[in-house]
Amino acid sequence: TPVFIVSATQVMSDVPMLALWVWAVYLWVSGERLRSMRRLLWASLLVAVCALTKYFGMALIPLLLVYSGMRHKCFRRHMLALLLPVALLAAYQLLTWRLYGRGLLLDAADYTTMRTSIAWISAVVGGLLFAGGCLLPIVLLTPFLFGRRMLLIGAFGLPVLSALLLSAIGASGIRWPFDGFGLISSLLALAFLAAGLVWIVLLVAELRVGADASAVLLVLWMAGTFVFSVFVNWSLNGRTLLPMVPACGLLFARRLRPGSLKAGRGWLLAAFGGAAALALAPAWADYRLANSSRLMVTRIHSACRDRTGELWFQAHWGFQYYMEQAGAKPLDLLRSSLKPGDRVVIPRNNTNVRPMDESWLGVVQVLTDTPTSWLTTMNPGTGASFYSDIWGPLPYALGRGDPEQYAILPIMREVNLKDTARALNQAEGP
Questions:
Q1: Measuring CA to CA, which residue among 125, 113, 106 is closest to residue 226?
Q2: So what's the pLDDT on residue 426?
Q3: Three-class secondary structure assignment of the chain
Q4: Which of 88, 331, 338, 427 is the most exposed place for a label (fewest CB within 10 A)?
């Protein structure tokens, strides 16, 4: 799937967290079936490590508790093993509070309240768009999951329902971010939304067959990840939807129709080949975007080779890594002091950037680059926003998009940003 391949080519903690998650689930489920307390304790330890790798791992505690409750219909003593991750996380909260004066677990929980004001219908449709794009190859595998009648209904019904949902949101007065993204992005949104509805059909079909403990585990696994990504996390992005991938694969395996693989072996090979292409293409575009930052840092230093002062920059991500590696300094908007001859570099397509007072600046130089000409993962011009839906409504999008722009701002007079920040705070009042 695109979300797995893109996430697996990063240095973030999402894939290690997912590995710990999968092994914790496996050890807990097998420990239940084999009545092995040793496996249950190992699973509990992995739950704690998973949660400390990325806080979403804490969701395993209620998930596994519900699974065991469904199996036994009552509380059993071995479920107390899940107190181990609770105790370790409580110790972590206490330790970070003593070290930093604030507990990092509750601090992260406070940070996630930023999305509470979003309209729920817009949030759900946005989540389905991201889930559909991140899990898009599942559409190619539906012939092995459903009969001909269901496939015909889905082929006509899901695109129509997707179009109605998008139209309803646009007509309801809710601000919808597709304005200005063009026909290609709108058609891609229809495809992603239809694909997002497919996995909901999968969940419903799984529960209709029989709501046993395993079915409930998989449904809550996927639905819980979706709800967290859409309503709890500070922004909707592909990385938070990553835990859905193994559950989706397990649902696919459980829903395979008898004899479908033998009857459609050629289609199966074509489907997996198409799935690989759909997964690798966004990863390639993301690699090109990341490499663009590295190459642009070289161009920036070449353009500033005659500088007499310091080279500063704003923004984060890979651009920050390569700029610091090259000797540039991150600009602290509350403390840094700028002198004539200094230069500040600000990328357009990045985060944590602030405009600067034009009275401080000389002639601005702008460098541009176009990483890809047909596919983007983070570009405001196409609505692609794999890492945060603040950029747009799609995890990736077709089209060239806006070029990557890097402004080099020459400082013409001495500026103490600490004094500027203090004056601005006094002007704004309490």
A1: 125
A2: 44
A3: CHHHHHHHCCCCCHHHHHHHHHHHHHHHHHHHHHCCHHHHHHHHHHHHHHHHHCHHHHHHHHHHHHHHHHHHCCCCHHHHHHHHHHHHHHHHHHHHHHHHCCCHHHHHHHHHHHHCCCCHHHHHHHHHHHHHHHCHHHHHHHHHCCCHHHHHHHHHHHHHHHHHHHHHHHHCCCCCCCCCCHHHHHHHHHHHHHHHHHHHHHHHHHHHHCCCHHHHHHHHHHHHHHHHHHHHCCCCCHHHHCCHHHHHHHHHHHHCCCCHHHHCHHHHHHHHHHHHHHHHHHHHHHHHHHHHHHHHHHHHHHHCCCCCCCEEECCCHHHHHHHHHCCCEECCCCCCEECCCCEEEEECCCCCCCCCCHHHECCCEEEEECCCCCEECEECCCCEECCCCCCCCECCEECCCCCEEEEEEEECCCEEHHHHHHHHHHHHCC
A4: 427
- For the ranges 138-147, 171-180, 361-370, the lowest mean pLDDT is seen at 171-180
Supply 45's token pair: 């330890």
Cα→Cα distances 340→10, 11, 15, 252, 261, Å: 38, 37, 45, 62, 70
Name 338's bridge partners: 415
Residue 97 is predicted with a pLDDT of: 92
- Rounded distance between C-alpha atoms, residue 138 and residue 99, angstroms: 46
Tracing tokens 């979403």 back to the chain, one arrives at 56
Closest CA to 236 of 115, 397, 58: 115
Pairwise pLDDT comparison (321 vs 121), residue with the higher score: 321
**What pLDDT, on the 0 to 100 scale, is given for residue 259?**
67
Instruction: Quote the pLDDT of residue 112.
Output: 63
Please state the rounded mean pLDDT for residues 209-235: 90
Structure tokens that stand for 294 in this block: 């590295």
| pLDDT tens-place string over residues 337-357 | 999 999 999 999 998 898 888
